[in-house]
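#onboarding

Welcome to the new folks! Below is a worked example of what a typical request in this channel looks like: someone posts a single protein sequence, and someone else replies with the predicted structure as tokens. Don't worry about understanding the tokens yet, we'll cover that in week two.

Example request:
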Amino acid sequence: MDYEDYLERALSKLPKGKGSDERFSVPKPHVFAEGKTTVLENFIGIANTLNRDPEHIIKYLLGELGTAGKIDGTRAVFQGNFSQELLENNINAYVHEYVLCSECGKPDTHLVREDRTLMIRCDACGAHRSVRKRKAAPTTVSKTIERDSEVEVMITSVGSKGDGVAKLDKYTIFVPGTKKGEMLKVRIKKVSGTLAFAEKI
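Example response:
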């Protein structure tokens, strides 16, 4: 077997390029408020475009948003009010971490688990890497909370002194007389750095 035969044999074993030359485009999220929840109307459509398990995506989004939620048919429902921009930025962060190949930049990848390590493998170029959550740039500009301002929050836990604790952007807000899971409007009484103290309206 000469050099050309070896070369042809080696090339035949390389992964077949499955990517297209078309520009990969993530569908823009259709977001609207429904009572005290936020609905991502085309969630399953986005999951299908990304070729990822909807349960994996919803788990990621809930973790990033710090809230509870569920898949409801073709929609995703999140407890609390979130902007379209925030959801779009988090979806794009998911795409860069779990979908796009770090070598060729194509979305023709799939997730596999090897020895308890989650890997992303590219069907287009054959590259593979472990998935490690990287620190991302802030997805929104933090809002400034001022004394006597009114905001809507969701109580995510209860502090040692019995006060409800909510998160809003960079702030931790303490609200007396509230329970975990409660969604309510509060008035800010005092701000100290990233800590704020409020009362129910």
